[in-house]
Design a protein that fits this description.
17% strand, eleven-stranded mixed beta sheet, 884 residues, alpha+beta, seven-stranded antiparallel beta sheet
Length: 884
């Protein structure tokens, strides 16, 4: 306890226990992250189609450039690289935990105070603790002088904690272990000695590190939905291809190698027609745009999918300190003899007003009493208020910092008071006395000495004989003592931490130095202050908006139940949704319990204690200013302004993104359904429609695979992207969050996709029938001409469908120009179609022939029924599902 370990023993223990570093999880290799991008159902289906297309190209003699398979493969590779780039921002939570460990430590070695690397601290080392030190390991306190430690990164409580050597029962919660200091926490005031009991992974910080290692990243709702949709589409594509191929082979129309090649190309065409190749790109771009929108709202997103997850959030689990509150202790009220005084403003910003009995302080008695109260509060104080990078911060104990801020609001300057009354000595705070006292001399040469003291109101009051009344000291009567204690009860009922302040002038015989607790008597009581970490001004409105949107707000905090209840009541959070005195392990359990009933849980936090729950939640949201590196790196999103209201903005943005993705999916799937049905019905009804099989085969391709690919990759892509980036429906926040079990491709969308797809296929095949000899409608054109007409009709029908797909329950004629990007995208697609029809280079590649003006009018008119059908679906939906 005096000499510490000797060098030989320290070396032996270092070899036995290892270095004082936190356990690290090896990063996932880059090749594995890249490979993971290519195992999604839709991607695997496209890769299979690419292989078939390459095989068909090889069978045909490998002549020319294999446009179809190369184009499909390019899309697949581009999508995989994009996902890999996003995931390259891998989790760095373990690295941040290691950075949090103190870089150095002062220990006693061989009886000599020695500075060593924190990694070399071993169990049994005697730590020497001073104000401002970051503690290098978990340790048992063996000596303490006014030792107070800020443990908010572990417990979530912003107030410094008193430490002393008195033993506690085994199993005492971390937040109540006053005989222990913990790795990564900071000494706020005082000094002490502590014997190291745990290092590295055995510390409380190390326990959190291990918990982070054991937590996998759960798939987001969007990831689950896209995977499920991909499986459904893949199953449908394989079933359709198998059925068509079986039909063709059974018909005997395939008689030679060329026929086999045509059948393979048909299979590729069907796969290309059914798979929405642009979905992955549209999803990525839409989420990226959402990230940019959120960034403008000071919300930084670390994972693309997290943007959408906010929109599905049904519960927000939020820490109190630093999230709903400022994380900065604030004087809210004070009682002097003249009555109650209230302070406005929150946090360490010294901006605010001081009110007495509902108005400005203008009573001379109240002014004098409050001035002396705050004056003494500044003297009996070791904290400093500083401005750092545009923000006000407190160096030292947060509670003492609150007194400095309150004095500044009243117009008292810390430096001015300290220079007028220099400090001569101090009787430090102790948990036994529950008070601290400082000794001062007047700098005006008058020779006056005085002491200022602050502490627990009941303790301080018992040492007082007088009370300040205006500019006089009057004896304390029993009635006044009872009234003062009643004021303490009033402040306590408001969940405020109370602090009494007193002073007295020293007798000449007491001013010679060597001051101790014996001078703490005969005080003049100045008043009581009530201190609280207050709610953010914008948090109440944000909570109300979240609840109106059907999002439940749950407070999870390590703070005292009474304080948590008071903050919750002020914010409008239901009492049943408040969980106080919760340790880190319980936070994680609560998140998992809430997830077990299908809820999508967002967790906010700022401390190391929040990291496991942040990682386990569907979406973790860390504070950017007050948050630790550990919390930020374990989260999916970071609030750059620590503003709870930004979470609600994120929920609104997330809902809008999901609706935009549904609009894009509605457009892509219904358009692809039209392509598939046109191909399937064209093959099955070729004779009826007058479609002529290819020379020497019994197989007919209504549209070429390259034409379908053109539609999907170029003509469809721009409108789909525009839909994905479209403005959000203003009524989104009036609806409850969608259930986690709700499918992206639900029954309503499936019905719409089928009906619109049928109308597109019917229009396409009708135009082709009218262009060819024979069939139901007599024509005189060639097969290339008919294909060009059908090709163009399908493109125009899909452009019409883009406007009809903006909403599932609103008419396309409602606010038709709200999405200007969609108009631009459709105009671009139309121009591309004109180019492919009239350009000779494109004509050779895509098998098109020039069309006349009357042909374009026919194609345009044939595409309009798609809009009529879509409007009918919307009307039926509104009749059966009215929405205000």
């Amino acid at each position: 306890m005096e000499r510490g370990l000797d060098g030989a023993e320290a070396s032996a223990r270092l070899a036995r226990y290892g270095r004082n570093v936190l356990p690290a999880e090896p990063p996932e290799p880059g090749w594995r992250r890249l490979a993971r991008q290519f195992v999604e159902p839709l991607v695997l289906l496209l890769l299979a189609a690419t292989a078939v297309a390459f095989a068909a190209w090889g069978v045909e003699g490998a002549r020319g450039v294999p446009f179809e398979p190369v184009a499909i493969l390019a899309i697949v590779v581009a999508n995989g690289v994009l996902g890999f780039v996003q995931e390259s921002r891998a989790e760095r939570a373990m690295a941040s935990l290691r950075e949090l460990t103190a870089p150095g430590a002062r220990v006693m070695r061989d009886g000599v105070p020695t500075e060593i690397d924190a990694e070399e601290v071993v169990p049994g080392d005697l730590l020497l603790l001073e104000e401002g030190d970051r503690i290098a390991a978990d340790a048992r306190v063996v000596a303490a002088a006014a030792l107070r430690v800020v443990e908010s990164i572990l417990t979530g409580e912003s107030a410094a904690v008193d430490k002393d050597p008195r033993p506690l029962p085994a199993g005492t919660a971390v937040a109540d272990r006053s005989d222990t200091v913990f790795c990564g926490t900071i000494v706020a005031t005082g000094r002490g000695r502590a014997v190291v009991t745990a290092t590295g992974g055995a510390t409380e910080l190390g326990r959190i590190a291990r918990a982070l290692q054991d937590l996998p990243d759960p798939p987001t709702p969007l990831q689950r939905e896209l995977a499920r949709t991909g499986r459904r589409i893949g199953f449908a594509v394989i079933s359709i291809c198998a059925a068509i191929l079986a039909l063709l082979l059974a018909s005997g129309g395939v008689r030679d190698l060329q026929g086999v090649v045509q059948v393979l190309l048909l299979a590729v065409s069907l796969a290309v027609a059914a798979v929405p190749e642009g979905l992955a790109a549209v999803t990525t771009v839409t989420l990226a745009v959402g990230m940019q929108r959120l960034a403008r709202r000071r919300v930084l997103v670390r994972r693309l999918s997290a943007v959408e997850t906010l929109g599905a959030t049904s519960i927000v689990c939020t820490d109190k300190i630093g999230t709903l509150t400022k994380g900065e202790m604030t004087v809210r009220a004070a009682f002097v003899r003249a009555g109650r005084v209230d302070f406005t403003g929150v946090g360490y910003d010294p901006t605010g007003d001081v009110w007495h009995l509902g108005g400005p302080v203008d009573d001379p008695r109240a002014l004098e009493e409050l001035r002396l109260l705050l004056h003494a509060g500044l003297l009996a104080n070791n904290a400093d208020l500083v401005r750092d990078g545009g923000r006000w911060k407190v160096r030292g104990d947060p509670t003492e910092g609150a007194l400095v801020v309150a004095a500044a609001k009243f117009g008292l300057g810390e430096a001015e008071i300290e220079s007028a009354f220099p400090r001569l000595g101090e009787v430090p705070f102790s948990s036994e006395r529950r008070m601290m006292t400082t000794v001062h001399v007047a700098a005006d040469g008058s020779g006056r000495f005085g002491i200022a003291s602050k502490g627990a109101p009941d303790v301080l009051l018992s040492r007082c004989t007088h009370e300040r009344a205006g500019d006089r000291n009057v004896p304390l009567t029993p009635d006044r003592r009872a009234a003062i204690l009643a004021s303490v009860e009033v402040l306590g009922g408001e969940a405020l931490r109370t602090l009494g302040v007193a002073y007295r002038e020293l007798e000449p015989s007491e001013s010679e130095g060597g001051w101790d607790a014996s001078i703490e008597r005969g005080f003049v009581f100045l008043g009581v202050v009530g201190i609280l970490d207050p709610p953010r001004l914008e948090a109440q409105d944000a909570v109300i908006r979240a609840q109106a949107a059907g999002v439940r707000v749950v407070m999870i905090t390590g703070d005292h139940p009474a304080t948590a209840r008071a903050i919750a009541e002020e914010l409008g959070i239901a009492p049943d949704d408040v969980h106080a005195r919760i340790d880190p392990g319980r936070k994680l359990e609560l998140v998992r319990a809430l997830q077990s009933d299908g809820s999508v849980v967002a967790m906010t936090g700022d401390g190391v204690n929040d990291a496991p729950a942040l990682k386990a939640a569907d979406i973790g949201i860390a504070m950017g200013i007050a948050g630790t590196d550990v919390a930020r790196e374990a989260s999916d999103m970071v609030l750059a302004d620590d503003d709870f209201a930004s979470i609600v903005a994120g929920i609104e943005e997330g809902r809008g993104i999901f609706e935009s993705l549904r609009a894009a999916l509605r457009y892509l799937l219904s358009s692809n359904a039209g392509e598939v049905l046109a191909m399937v019905l064209g093959v099955a009804c070729a004779g009826t429609l007058g479609l002529v099989p290819e020379a020497g085969t019994g197989v007919v391709l209504p549209l070429l695979a390259v034409q379908i690919l053109w539609i999907n990759l170029l003509t469809d892509a721009a409108p789909a992207l525009a839909l994905g980036m479209g403005p959000a429906d203003p009524s989104l926040m009036d609806r409850p969050p969608r259930p986690q079990s709700a499918a992206v491709l639900d029954r309503a969308m499936f019905t719409r996709v089928a009906v619109v797809g049928i109308s597109m296929a019917a229009a396409t095949l009708a135009v082709m029938d009218a262009a060819l000899p024979g069939g139901l409608l007599e024509g005189t054109g060639s097969m290339p001409y008919a294909r060009t007409m059908g090709f163009t009709t399908l493109v125009l029908a899909q452009l019409v469908n883009a406007f009809a797909s903006r909403s599932e329950d609103r008419s396309a004629f409602r606010a038709p120009f709200a999405n200007r990007a969609l108009w631009a995208a459709c105009a671009l697609s139309a121009m591309l179609q004109v180019a492919v029809v009239y350009s000779s280079a494109f004509a050779r590649a895509f098998g098109t022939v020039p069309l006349g003006l009357s042909d374009w009018l026919v194609c345009a008119c044939a595409s309009l029924p798609v809009l009529a059908v879509s409007e009918g679906v919307v009307l039926v939906r509104r009749l059966y599902n009215p929405r205000s």
